[in-house]
Amino acid sequence: MNIFISHSSKNADYGNAIVDLLTSLGLKGDQITFTSNTAYGIPTGQNIFNWLKNRISEKPHVIYLLSPEYYSSIACLNEMGAAWIVENEHTMIFTPTFKLDSHEFQNGALDPREIGFYINNEERLTAFIESLKTSFGISPSIVLVNQKVKGFLKRIESFKEIEEKPSSFVPTTKTPNKNVVVAKVEKQTDDKPTINVATKTLKKGSSRLFTDLRNSKLKDEEVLLLHYIIETERFKLMTDWQEFKEIENIEAWEDVNELDKILSKNYPKALKRFEMRALTEVSSVTGGGNPKELSLLDNVREELLDLPEDIQEIISNVVQNNPAKEVNDFPF
Q1: Is 251 among the domain residues?
Q2: What is the mean pLDDT of residues 184-193?
Q3: How many of the other CB atoms lie within 10 Å of CB of 287?
Q4: In angstroms, rounded to a whole number, what is the distance separating the alpha carbons of residues 284 and 241?
Q5: Which parts of 104-227 are beta strand (E)?
Q6: Where is 323: in which H helix or E strand?
Q7: pTM for this one?
């Protein structure tokens, strides 16, 4: 059996988090269909509708990632109907802002009386993973499962905070096109309001890293290294005498994602450029005091877990432009 994640593309961050959780616990990449991630989506050259039809007809375990955006999408509702007809089993997972009493949910194809769970419910999430053990190669380690679930919930919480931004933010009369200036009224103890002016774009996607990406200052191997870090959640990277281990991991990742060997061949240079850009810090040293592991700085890690759409597109374009080269065994 495979897992098919039916979702709105606007909730791709939640879906990617689910994929990363499941693969970190033992599921193989080819057991998951998640169309918002090229590694688990529609193969190049395939007709999207025929391919989805064939995958759904394999009677997968369908995860319905339900949200207001899901029920606002005709494509999602069509997908739900098709999957509902042929599914083997299904699980309903709700995003934090989803309302169970919504008219769409109460009158849709899925039975609202069935037990689903909110994506940030630790107990229900753990029980769901436990239920998958009968059909999938989930790790039997309780400690590992607990660690991965807690990491998942921490990641989900960052999405929730973005969705629940304070509504008291209002634009001032002068609003530049790109750097939107906003003002927030804060009440002090003497009941005199003060204005705290900030630039909205500084909160997301304004770092030097993103600026360099937007200005095409990063080489392909650097962009691919970012993609590798995001997909595998390897925020700690091996260097020096342990470098070969990281390169082996990268080569395996390139094979799975059908990518050219640009990153594995240029990993030392890409990592060095990350150091020069002040994106990393030494997190582990050898007995002789030499670095053997570098970690991304906390602020860089937080940004990579919440990429602006234009940055996602830039990375995706680099990935698509570096497919694995076909090897011709008969060069004559």
Answers
A1: yes
A2: 39
A3: 6
A4: 12
A5: 117-118, 170-171, 181-187, 193-199
A6: none
A7: 0.49
